[in-house]
User: Fold this.
Amino acid sequence: MNGYEWIFYGGIMALMAVGIWAILSRRNLIKAIMGLVIIETAVNLLLVAVGYVNDRSAPIVNGDTGLGDSPVGEVVDPLPQALVLTAIVIGLATTALALVAAVGYFRSTGTLELKSFTYGRTDETEVKE
Assistant:
């Protein structure tokens, strides 16, 4: 590994640390959801970085893919890229679902602070009319 790859992996780990810090230190529900989105982005970057191979081209092959002059051996593996694309779509859906749950939580409690979370108990003094 050259020096640039270590910097890239270090940036991914720093992004992961920021996401974990946002989840653990913030009591606001929206900030915790944003921390999860940051962690998801870091994992996607890590998968793309692991799937990268030096001196190879994109997995777009024109022409015959049989034996002979086929450029199949000169392309990167497309599986990590496909997995990251799928993870982005799933992450968008789960983020939207988490934000909808946060809106419902705000409507029922009147706050986004997690210290008012009651784990399913509803007292009439805690529920916003």
